[in-house]
Amino acid sequence: MKPIAFLLILAGVHAAASPHAQAPADLQWTMTPTNVTASLRGISAVSDRVVWASGSGGTVIRTTDGGKSWKTLTVPGAETLDFRDVDAVDERTAYVLSIGNGDASRIFKTADGGLTWTPQFRNQNPQAFFDAMGFSDAFKGFALGDAVDGELLLMRTVDGVRWSRVPPDTLPPALAGEGAYAASGTNLAIQGSHVWFATSASRVIRSTDGGRKWTPVVTPLPTGTSAGIFSIAFRDKTHGIVVGGDYKNLTDATDNAAVSDDGGASWTLVKGLGGFRSAVAFIPGLELGVVAVGPSGTDYSTDDGRTWRAVAGQGFHTVSVARRSRTAWAAGEKGAVGALRF
Fold it and tell me: Which of 83, 196, 302, 326 could form a Cys-Cys staple with 285, CB 3.0–4.6 A?
């Protein structure tokens, strides 16, 4: 969603988390040398050793040694694009999505570790603005955009090659000004045939049949021109969480998280985050573990997001945790990438 560009002004904030329950002193981010200075908004952890990240200036980087070293990858013709999302399938296969009006919104794919890239989608609608992607495997995925002419905009691929629009009549009508915040590439969540995406209107649009039919659910998070849901995650088909807030008030922790235990059919507010949070992820290797990040700090939970503790240190834009892992990877301003090992 276009207003998120305002975050570029605020993104350099490296404030400590607000004074609430604190994490143990030995739980802290370990920063890794990426040798890039881009604003990184996309990150995708395949394992504790293989992580991809993406950002401004056509930046895509990858580590295969747990962050000890990073390789900068070149996407031809993408030098001016802003890659707000990267979704990696394995060490060699990944998709990146750039944002912007019209043909600035594009999707590229690599199957050889970033040596070569195939342009897969180039938006031709001057009113469309894409925000994020989500994949269930190497071939099946969705790309989410802001609503156009009162219709929600969702693309899908079923073969990892071709993209087509999800028929608008299978989706609920868009609310006025509804879109998705292009802050962290985490607006979509997929668990098997269950798919969810979150909007700036603080709605969760859910499907239980692989994307054939969709149902809107209103969450209790406030919404506005700079507020709403920024990220959604599910640890299984039942238990999920949304986070967000107001990106113009980074330390405001008022009603900026909600959890679901019925597959997203209903949502309950939870307290304890330290401020606006732009990304959230479950920690598969930590029972009921969740981590949330934002420009002003990090919080984690060990009870499915019901209560939270603050992790001291700088803020980030986005976060990812690999399957069966206990290590969270986060990315932010000036090429910052950190690992948080629970």
Answer: 326
Specify the residue for token string 């969740």: 290
Q: Could you give the CA distance from residue 304 to residue 288 in angstroms, rounded to a whole number?
A: 5
Instruction: Report phi then psi at 104, rounded to 5.
Output: -70, -20
CATH number of 2-341: 2.130.10.10
Decide: 69 and 63 in contact? Cβ < 8 Å.
yes
Three-state DSSP class for residue 302? coil
The pTM of the whole model exceeds 0.85: yes
Cα–Cα distance measured from residue 139 to residue 78, given in angstroms and rounded to the nearest whole number? 23
**Beta bridge pairs of residue 61:** 53, 72
Query: Three-state SS for 229?
Result: strand
What DSSP string runs through 156-176?
A: EESSSS--EEPPGGGSPBPPT
Cα(73)–Cα(77) distance, rounded to whole angstroms? 12
Q: What is the token pair recorded at 89?
A: 């399938």
Q: Which residue type, as a one-letter code, is found at position 144? A: L
What are the φ/ψ torsions at residue 175 (nearest 5 degrees)?
A: -80, 165
pLDDT recorded at residue 271? 95
212: left (phi over 0), alpha (psi -120 to 50) or beta: alpha
In this prediction, residues 119-145 reach a mean pLDDT of 96
Give the pLDDT of residue 5: 44
The DSSP code sequence of 36-62 is: --S-EEEEEESSSS-EEEEETTTEEEE
What is the sign of the dihedral through the CA atoms of 115, 118, 124 and 127? negative
In the chain the first and final C-alpha atoms are separated, in Å, by: 33
Instruction: Work out the average pLDDT over 161-182.
Output: 97
Kindly state the percentage of the chain with pLDDT values over 90.
92
Q: Where are the alpha helices (DSSP H) in 192-293?
A: none
- How far apart CA 316 and CA 338 sit, in angstroms, is 9
User: For residue 266, how far is the Cα from the chain centroid?
Assistant: 21
